[in-house]
Amino acid sequence: MNSPSLDSMIVTLVTFAPLAGALLLVLLPRRDRDIRIFSLVVSLLTFVLSLHLAVYFHRAQSGFQYEIDKPWISSPNIHYHIGIDGISLWLVILTTFLTPLCVLISWKSVHDRVKEFFIILLILETALIGVFISLDLFLFYFFWEATLIPMALLIGIFGHERKVYAAVKFFVYTMIASAFMLAAILWLYAHTGSFDFVTIRDRVLSGAVPGFPAAAQWLFLGFFIAFAVKVPVFPFHTWLPDAHVEAPTAGSVLLAGVLLKMGTYGMLRFNLGLFPEQARSNAWWIVILALIGIIYGALVAMVQPNLKKLVAYSSISHLGFVVLGIFSFTQSGLNGAMFVMLAHGVSTGGLFMLTGILHERRHTYEISEFGGLAGPTPIYAASFLFILLASAGLPLLNGFIGEFLVMNGAFEARAVYGVLAATGVIWSACYLLWMYQRVFYGKVTHPVNNSIGDMDGFEMAAVWPCAAATLVMGVAPILWLGAIDPAIHAALTPFAQVVSKVVGQ
Amino acid sequence: MTMPAAFVQTSQAIPLGVDYIRILPELVLSAFGILVMVLEPLVDERNGQKVLGWIAFVGTLAGLGSTWYMSMSPGLAFSNMVRVDGFSVFFHFVIIAIASGVILSSFEYMAVQRIRAGEYYALILFGVVGAALMSSAIELVLIFIALEISSISSYILAGFRRNQAASSEASLKYFLLGSFATAFFLYGVALMFGATGSTNIDAISRTLAAAPAPLLVYVAMVLLLIGLGFKVAAAPLHVWTPDVYEGSPAPVVGFMSTAPKAAAFAVLLRVVFSINAPGRFWLIWVAAALSMTLGNVSALVQNNVKRLLAYSSIAHAGYQLMAFAMISRETSGDGISAAMFYAASYAAMNVGAFAVVSHFANAGERYVTLEDYEGLGRSSPILAATLTIFLLSLIGIPMTGGFFAKFYVFGAAMKAHLVWLTVIGVVNSAIGSYYYLRIIVMMYMREARKPAPVTPIPATLGLALAISVLATLYLGILPNRVLQYAQESAQELLAPPSSVPAPPALQAQTALPQ
Questions:
Q1: Domain-located, residue A430
Q2: What is the 3-state secondary structure (H, E, C) of B99-120?
Q3: Cα–Cα distances in angstroms (integers) from residue A3 to residues A7, A10, A67, A212, B112, in the given order
Q4: Which of A300, A422, B140, B369 lies 20 to 30 Å (CA to CA) from residue A408?
């Protein structure tokens, strides 16, 4: 069963299965129903394949697994070097988990240019997985940029009123930011002769790269700015609300669920992995930005009249926790950051699907247009409440675990960080519950809302897996943390060295 | 790489048979050009145009074939005036391939615009002869002649929409400024001769390697750079580009933004890297930074697609000039191969983009503004999808040739420790993405307010588009072979010349005390 050939091919299979599906889709005739079924089958197949990764993953082991390292281009020295560790494993599975749900939620809401929609969606999935599995900096940049076009197209073609503005803003923001990362990658290549992450890391950490100390701060910033815009860290966040509000539901789910995590994943992998000393010396202002993000995001979310914008700003707040956890340099902070990434992916993905369901019926996201929905749509209201509580951090659901670990780590690093972060949890309860009250409780304020239908089968099939996942992750987080912890431990090893160096002097 | 024995050949009075093989593509293309001109009065005016086009197309195929044949006998020819090496074979191939693509995409344009085709195809073939010869000539005077052959054909081609004032204006502007620039080039050749006693690049290179370069060499280099900078449309010598591109027939723009430009880059590479005068680069760096920035910033506000692509071509000249960011002879190979790869992938995507533009523009080039492209994604999905691929390649998105092209030049600049230039480059390429994206936005995300009629794609154009798309994707996914070939020929180019004996005058001069 666990044959070596399958083991070496499995990551490649998972990555390119959606792309192969997209290519086949090009050849399929324009019969919308067949196209939807085909996309669902492809994305489910990818999900099942990706489960192989989790099942046969050696949890206690910290290095990269399922590694393949084949030369792709001889000069410059670019390799098809892929592999996953406890950090990337779950992000890949998060991607493959959310994509079939995106297909389901778009089953009825996308009825124009259906073929194009699903082709773009599947290409996007390949690019997203590619980002997490790449161990070659060139390959990483390749996939990183490759996510841009499908996402911009999803927003720009299938979005709402101001879709073009949002798509172009999203594209230009992230493109300009990642240009700096490209410059940093090229610098590393010019001075090490390699794009290989592991090789570069080893040489950087052993001090074998000429000119590195002088350039390291700039290289750190080059990577950081690309990631910070993607996360987004305050004050680079302004593209996010626009992109979310205009994006179609599936676009929002993948944007919030996976795309933002590319940024935090990048910080964890590259900023911490390659530049531990710079990460430490820059941590103070990054942590301040993260705290501003947590509180500012929450406060702005509170006053949003637009349901989807509210969820978008809550993402900024939650991602602030992730950045805080990463730059606390504590075992529990980083474990928590990883867990928040996954939990946020599932719960916010669910919330975006739910707001999309509402938009499908009323073509508006304005909170004031709703009220008393719990009466006409009980199933919808219950599902919404469940996922909302997960997002607010109720114990036994997944949001709690991650935020608790991050705050624990923040307290360890500096108590005031923990105190400020804790207020974020309170704010999130405020804005989410207040929003829930205005939308679902009380009397039905607009008669038209009496006649909107409850969730249909496809919508339940899309939302309930998210709800189930929030519960399982909240009850048994060890299933995830068991694989995350050794990888985090390995990621923190250089920091232990830095500390001992300082102590040694 | 070892030197083939042919390089050790000394000059002789009577050209050998093999000498003619080394200019076989030029001979074949000239023969086909003349054939087209001779046949033109004989064929029937309406249906004969296509026949001439096919003859010209076959001519380019024969040119490609003879390039392959030529590549098997590398060496010097005609008293060391022409040098066939990997470098010139590469550029021959690129330039002739461009011509065949342009000819295929011109069939429909000729018919729709009611242009008499005989001279047109002949001029394209002659232009290719000049451009191809530029890449293999190593004698500055011969380079000048080749440059003039290629330029004069383009001057006339620019004015081919005879009933349009804009086209005549483009032709005249191009002619006046172009002649001015080639005069600079010629002046540079003269000064170079004065400084080193030779016009042969190999001989000049050896003289300068032996003794410190006199000031005159620098002046000569600057003048040569001005002449060639004009041809590649590098800032600040770019002002002619937008007007000329806007007025010229669209397929011609596809031709002259790629073929003569690739040839000028070939000369630039040969001159700069062979002559190897120290301290010559900062001028090119400044030109690169200026071209990128001016080109991209001006393109942001363009509303005419041809003008937009003109500014984009200025920006791309800037990226390509970054390949000259070398600090030592050892690392020069990277820059040369990057520039060669860039020329090839830019040719693929730009010829393709202009093929789409010229098809869509319709009779009298009526539909060339951005608004006309609204809703093209719906009215002609294939045309929109192909144009999107070319535009993504121009942006430099992974999986397309444009991505690797940029990646290699940026990498070369970084390797030369030119961090500032690399940063300007990457930021520019990000800014540049905006205006290409605008066209994609128009095609897919806007509904047509007044739909432009889209005629079905004729088979010849379809073939040209298919070739361009395949080339763009091939260079973007499997760039290895092309790049490797470019790197090998770059090493060949950099290998110290050993064959040409220094002329007596030169020896006398170097013996003089400085």
A1: yes
A2: HHHHHHHHHHHHHHHCCCHHHH
A3: 6, 11, 15, 42, 63
A4: A300
Spatial separation of the C-alpha atoms in residues B321 and B268, rounded to whole Å: 10
With CB atoms and an 8 Å threshold, state whether A74 touches B433: no
Report the C-alpha gap between B245 and B167 in whole angstroms: 9
State whether residue A167 sits within 8 Å of chain B by CB: yes
Answer whether A40's CB lies under 8 Å from A103's CB. Answer: yes
Q: Choose among A146, A164, A167: nearest Cβ to B399.
A: A146
Domain boundary assignment for chain B = 17-511
Beta-carbon contacts of residue B296 (< 8 Å; ≥ 6 apart) = B311, B312, B315, B428, B431, B432, B435
CB-neighbour burial class of residue B397 (10 A; exposed 0-12, middle 13-18, buried 19+) = buried
A235 domain residue, yes or no: no
HSE of B293, CA atoms in CB hemisphere, 13 A: 11
B317: CB partners within 8 A, 6+ apart: B232, B233, B234, B238, B261, B291, B295
Range of the domain at A472: 289-505
Radius of gyration of chain B (CA): 22
Burial (CB < 10 A; 0-12, 13-18, 19+), residue B499, is: middle
Predicted-assembly ipTM surpassing the 0.90 threshold:
no
Counted across chains A and B, CB pairs separated by less than 8 A come out at 82
Cis check for the bond before A76: say yes or no (omega within 30 of 0): yes
Cα distances (angstroms) measured from residue B243 to each of B110, B169, B226, B265, B369:
22, 8, 20, 22, 15
User: Which DSSP state fits B211?
Assistant: S
Please tell me the predicted confidence (pLDDT) of residue A266: 92
Q: Is residue A503 part of a domain?
A: yes
- ∠ CA B473-A16-B478, nearest 5°, is 25
Q: Above 80 in pLDDT, residue A125?
A: yes
Q: Confirm or reject contact between A426 and chain B (CB < 8 A).
A: no
The pLDDT, as a whole number, for residue A497 is 57
Closest CA to B320 of B274, B245, B375, B269: B269
What's the DSSP call for residue A477?
Answer: T
Contacts of B461 (CB under 8 A, 6+ apart): B104, B105, B107, B108, B355, B359
Count up the domains in chain A and report the number: 1
R_g over Cα of chain A: 22
Q: Is A492 touching B (CB cutoff 8 A)?
A: no
Q: Residue B406: closest CA among chain A residues belongs to which residue?
A: A182
Residue spans of chain B under pLDDT 50: 1-11, 500-514
Q: Residue A370 falls within a domain, yes or no? A: yes
Tokens of B257: 């933004």
- Which residue matches tokens 């490759």? A146
- B392 part of contact set with chain A, CB < 8 Å: yes
Query: For an interface test with B, which of A120, A149, A151, A154 has the most B Cβ atoms less than 10 Å from its Cβ?
Result: A149
Chain A contact present for B327, CB below 8 A: no
Q: What does the pLDDT read at residue A26? A: 85
Structure confidence by residue, pLDDT tens digits, B403-425 = 889 988 988 888 888 888 888 99
Cβ of residue A178 closer than 8 Å to a chain B Cβ: yes
